[in-house]
Amino acid sequence: MAYLAPIHRPSSVRLTLRLNLLDHREECLVLAKANRLEIWRATEEGLTMAYSKSIYGRISMLQKIQPAGSKTDHLFVGTVRAQYFTVMWNPQTHKLDTMQSFVDVSQEHMRDSESRDRCLVDPTGRLLVMELYEGVLNLVKIVKPRGGKTDYLENPEQVRISEMKVRASAFLYTDTKQPKLALLYQDARENVKLATYRMLDDKGQLILQFDPKKNRENDVDDLCVGAMHIIPVPKARDEASKRYIVRNATTAKANLGGLVVLGETKFTYLDDESKAIVEYALDEAVLWAAWEPIDERTYLLGDDYGFLYILTILVDGATVTGLQVVKLGQVSKPTSLENLGNGVFYIASHEADNQVVQIDLESPEHGVTLLQTLPNIAPILDFTVMDMGGREGETQLNEYSSGQARLVTGSGGFEGGSLRSVRSGVGLDDTAILAEMEGIRKVFALHSGPTLPNDTLVVSFSTETRFFKFDTQGDIEEVETVKNLSSTSETLLTYNLDEGCILQVTQHEVSIYGKSPGHRWQPPNGQIITAASGNQNHILLSSNGRTLFTLSIQQNLAEVAFQELGDDQVACIHVPQVMGDIGVVGLWKSGSVSLLDLATLNTIVSEDLRRADGASIPRDIALTQILPPELSGPTLFVSMEDGIVLSFNVDKSDCSLSGRKSIVLGTQQAQLQILPRDNTTFNVFATCEHPSLIYGSEGRTVYSAVTAEDAIAVCSLNSVAYPGSVVVATINELKLAVIDNERRTHVRTLPIGETVRRVAYSAKEKSFAIGAIKRELTKGQEVVTTSFRLVDEVVFGELGEPYYLPPNNEIIETVVRAELPTRHGDGELVERFLVGTSFLHEEEANVRGRLLIFGVNADRAPYMIASHNLKGSCRCIGVLDGKIVAALNKTVVMYDYEETSSTSATLKKLATYRCSTCPIDIDITDNIIAVADIMKSIALVEYTPGADGLPDKLEEVARHAQQVFSTSVAEVDTDTYLETDHDGNLILLKRNREGVTREDKTRMEVTCEMNLGEMVNRVKRINVETSKDALLIPRAFLGTTEGSIYLFSLIPPQNQDLLMRLQSRLASLPSASSIRGSSDSTSPHQIELSPGNLDFNKYRSYISATRETSEPFRFVDGELIERFLDLEVEVQEHVAEGLGVKAEDLRGMVEGLRRLH
Fold first, then answer.
1. Which of 209, 644, 842, 1087 has a CA 20 to 30 Å removed from the CA of 223?
2. 935 contacts: CB under 8 Å, gap ≥ 6
3. Does 1119 lie in the same domain as 1064?
4. What is the pLDDT of residues 929-969, one digit of tens each?
């Protein structure tokens, strides 16, 4: 059985709508993201989300309806499975209430419309039209509820139309109460035409048969063949601009109230009543993507490249005299535009970040200013899993939930293309900006009284120290000093001592303030203090980096011990609070860390930190109690110069070190700061390129990313006004923040400006290899260029020069990293990047693609080793036992790779396998190649090396004998494969090696299946070590076209029954809206998990062109399971009643499932 849980929810915005849903005095913005509805409000800080809800269906249409008697608008929602419902906002419960719902039960043989589903409401609010199928309109009258009922939508009526391929439609503004519909369509001869129809007859009844000869009021041809949009134009409102229709077409003028047809090369304005036409030729061809009215005469347009334009209708009174188009700046490619008022617009995008921009409508230049960016990682074309731990070969913790495993995605399209780093982590929420200042080195929190709370903040710079005082109201004031602490030099260390005293260490002295007289210690012979650390009893410091001193605080800074280091130097020092009689020292030359007895400075334990292939130096140390004392002793963390953090378990009895582990946090050393967690345990904050919070959870140490990329120094602050806070110093400011209690998904972006089609990761080279496609407009011609390049794994900087393929002809299809054998040098395996390409046009006979082999030189730049011409496009590549497997147009070919030198290699064909149609993906395990066919599902192909003079063979050993339009495949368990298709289905297939007959053995059986509702582009297997009693066994990550990332897991047998029955119980919970008005409407067991009364089983059931089921098969939806925690306690107990498990135990189990991702 299988389990699926979301890591990153869909971020692509396909549909948007402005309406007065929350309040009749305020417009809000509704966004549709796959199966999620989001409601956003405009605030002074920008757009903020007011409400978010997932529904049991993928949203295909949004429209607003204002029923008679309602002050607020209602929201009409349609799904891809022809389910429709309306909702209104309930101000008491702050939730959406379902008002009406229905399902379209049209004949299954109807062909879907060529464009996406559309829903229109006429300007008078009397009629709703849906375009779902070719040649058919669904008409729904909006009426006033009668007889005490709340329904305001009548049953849909289907109307046949002769316009089969409708490109766009819109209701026109008319003087009468009869709605008029305009259809932009393509006829059988591929000519683009415009037709208009009246929807109601003179008696107000629906016209159920559109006769082109009788009912068509306008039939306009000679339109641009690339026209895809029409804009209805309102009529003039003022008396002076009233239209006077002249029926003589030769003298008729075009008046306001018509429509504009947006073409690629010309615009056409049509006055539907006078039949007059005004045309406007564009200076260059433009592919239009979206439009939005600014006012009655001005419209904002967006094109396929993300450029914005303003269309102005030029008028003389009510007469249209011409059109004018002005080009503005570039933004994300829009799928939809929304006017938020005052020149502010929302740019919804599928291929780039969503944006809020300000357009200066008053100035002639119409400047565009970016106000807000809302990240969008859709579509995920490819991704790779970067394990940030285990770099040195120690125990690996390849877990996404800890923030250690990072997913790097190739996201977006063309100008919006980017690399995105997706990582689970802890959020850092800013609460106040204390000051703007640069050059901060360290920060410390003190209390001027004998005990907490803190009321003083010490900020250390390279040449001075500044002090800030907090009052009980939270106000902050800078003061000259506190208790006479020095302010004229850098403070290396300061903290509170007993009896209200404060210790301060600068480069020139150690001082205790608050005692009379004060006590000081200075290094000998004019030396300077380079490092220091201490607790309530001792302070350990280094002088000139070559001499160690131990000072006793109880003896007024008397020297207890000193030690000369000879030719070595101190790199870092730490005195722990948990083991007060020892100190820890890291050394430069030896690259080691030593635990010392503070009383004598004798070495207790020493550990060499370097490996054979490295010469890194320890730069910071923290020894603290991360895990509860009853579970584990203290943990020692050592930050190395190359960005690796080492950890050791420390035995309190003999200070011995064990359990060495490593994790990569960046390319430079991390600064470690200990933060209190509770009375017995602590957290460690690591500041570096990827700041992390190190903490204990469920008996293990967890590294979670923190959203503080620009942090330089941190310290805890527990003041009256800001309890439990953290002070964060950045490059240019000092601020207060609060650390989140739970992990969230965090995204970091590297804009590429090109489509990142393929991504491969090399841990050895510490880089990503990407295949990118760039498009540019040059003198009206589109130029497409493809390149292969390397980028650094941490800073995402480009390495070396890219390798460019011939423009407008060759594109990259696949990029993989592999270890291949060599025939030169010592013959060991070497790391190479394999690139498969395809040609758009055949320049040479029988050459339709290439297989390129790249190496990486000493400067970390890519260079080509070999190029092999192919007779087909190279869709995907794999490696089997040192041999290259290439999936071409119709065949899978195996090559023997022979590298004779570091710059030359040859490929020899060994065996081939003929596919059913075209392979779209392959997955290799041992000698089995799983081939995902674009039409014919999965086939397993076995490779057999030749023997006794016979050639090598690729032979099919198993197949899934159904029509499945595959998109990706991966083995997730022994003989078990996860397949995805273009209908959004997930299918788990198992090979039956123990079958009785040969047919049984060659037939792959479906063990689990479910519809995700989003097309999966890529599946990547992961290996995570789990215990025997684990709730789940994580096996793969999935990336979708909508920007979602899912964690796929297998369910151990002992948990399968409980999870399946829990899913059934949650899916069958009664809906409060479905029994509104019943006497039992206050029952705690009524809850609406999805608006619209939609059925969970239907939503997740398998569906394709050839087969449809009624419910998911042995598949558990983690999103539904985790909603159990959002239910009221009474409802949770009701759910647990029939499961044989206590509600408390069920909550604990679901919490454990949630923590996995």
1. 209
2. 916, 917, 918, 963, 964, 965
3. yes
4. 999 999 999 999 999 998 888 899 999 999 999 999 999 99
